[in-house]
Amino acid sequence: MLNGYIRSDRIVDAERLFAEMPVKNVVSWNTMVDGYMQNGMVDKAFEVFDEMPERNVVSWNTMLTALVQCGRVEDARALFDKMPKRDVISWTAMVTGLAKNGRVDEARKVFARMPERNVVSWNAMITGYAQNMKLDEAFDLFERMPTRDLSSWNGMITGFIQNGELRRAERLFNEMPCKNVVSWTTMITGYVQSEQSEEALKIFAKMLAEDRVKPNEGTFVSVLSACSNLAGLVEGQEVHQTIVKTVYRRNEIVVSALINMYSKCGELNIARRMFDDGLISQRDVVSWNGMIAAYAHHGCGEDAISLFKKMSDLRFKPNDATYVALLSACSHSGMLEEGLRYFDELVRDKSIQVRDDHYACLVDLYSRAGKLKEAFEFIVQLGIKPSVSVWEALLAGCHVHGDVILGKLVAKKILDTEPENAGTYMLLSNIYASKGKWRNAAKVRLKMKDKGLKKQPGCSWIEVENKVHVFVVGAKSHSHSNLIYPILHELHAKMRKAGNISNTNYLEEEEEDLIS
């Protein structure tokens, strides 16, 4: 009964029952200590632990593990040193706690003192090294392991990916004698994080060919992210068809990923239909955020605001991500007054921490509306050092509105923090050129060249009749480039005439950028 109450998160009932128990043994006491720990009531657990008439090694391990999990390493170490008897679980918990808190050298000393080790102990030490960016030490231990389980392989692969060593992760993945869903999902996520979404889709296809391995929630979210990055509607629809046949078809996080995928692929109506088809009771704030962000992505500010109001009416509490999406929607739709009103609402809501993303959205909102002075004054009065993304939002506004003086000042702020930021040099050069300051523009480009900086060329692709056509800025390798470029010149002339771009010669060298 005690255990049942705890498992049902009825800790008050568990307390009452524990107090009423006519006889308590060590298992009863351990269960109550564990119950408090599961509910984050560490001090209360300590009180019960101290009152215990007798303790066994499980009592000590329960307390030790809980202290480690909540980051109280010093208390855990003191408890560990007092233990009259330790088993392999005690030692492993201590190794894990020290490593998780950055004290990996101390963890290694404890690991070296262990009278006996099991595979969990080895995995804990390897993960500790990987989390603290000591990959060589982690891999050395991995190779010395007397026996390995799937967690050993998955932990090492995760360590490589988290530290940007994707190729080493690939090699180890290919050597695995047996793979589970975690192994495949880790590799798919690694490719997506490294902006190799095509490879992620290939790995997913191989995974599906393995009959005994079934994708889980994490797999679907990662592979849908790959489809979103590629704007691969056909691939996304194929993944959707796979999801429909699983228990994850109504999973809130997976549905949000589907909404995001369809939105990024330009199918906003399908995204909204998917959102509306879901039961309100099954929606969470992630689902609402995904749909609001979809409207923001397509510049549908009024739809985003309408959905936000509906969300509030249905008693769903917005979080920090909700306001990022909402402010972005207002910015992309030129809805300055509405955006300012929602930013004030965010600041007044003390339960949500205002982040750099919110500041960047507000600066972007001002900048797109041509209120560059207000944007700059807002940044100055923040009272904290703004992130590069905040300054970049203002620099983009200076570029659009041709403000050379402010643009130069903002570019300096960015380059003081990121001197190798090629995009900043390019924007500053373009700002000078838009005002006919060719010498200044040339100086910036020359400085960029001297530093060996190159802006990665823009790239885009479209799919026509099951064939993908890729376009890169400045490239003329496409088979129809002789037809494409005259149309680009014509579009460029119309845009210039309509006042969408400045009437300056510098754009001629950039006009290929219209492709993407």
UniProtKB/TrEMBL annotation:
SUPFAM superfamilies for the chain: TPR-like (SSF48452)
Superkingdom, taxonomy of origin: Eukaryota
- Compartments in which it is found: Mitochondrion
Which regions are annotated as PPR repeats? 25-59, 87-121, 149-183, 284-318, 319-353, 421-455
The entry lists its GO molecular-function terms as: RNA binding
Kindly list the biological process annotations in GO that this record carries.
RNA modification; system development
List the GO terms this entry assigns under cellular component, sorted alphabetically.
mitochondrion
Q: Which InterPro entries match?
A: E_motif, PPR_At4g14850-like_plant, PPR_rpt, TPR-like_helical_dom_sf
Q: Keywords on this record?
A: Mitochondrion, Repeat, Transit peptide
The UniProt family comment states: Belongs to the PPR family. PCMP-H subfamily.
- Read off the PANTHER family from this record: PENTATRICOPEPTIDE REPEAT-CONTAINING PROTEIN, TETRATRICOPEPTIDE-LIKE HELICAL DOMAIN SUPERFAMILY, DYW DOMAIN-CONTAINING PROTEIN
The name this protein goes by in its record: DYW domain-containing protein
- Taxonomic lineage of the native organism: Eukaryota, Viridiplantae, Streptophyta, Embryophyta, Tracheophyta
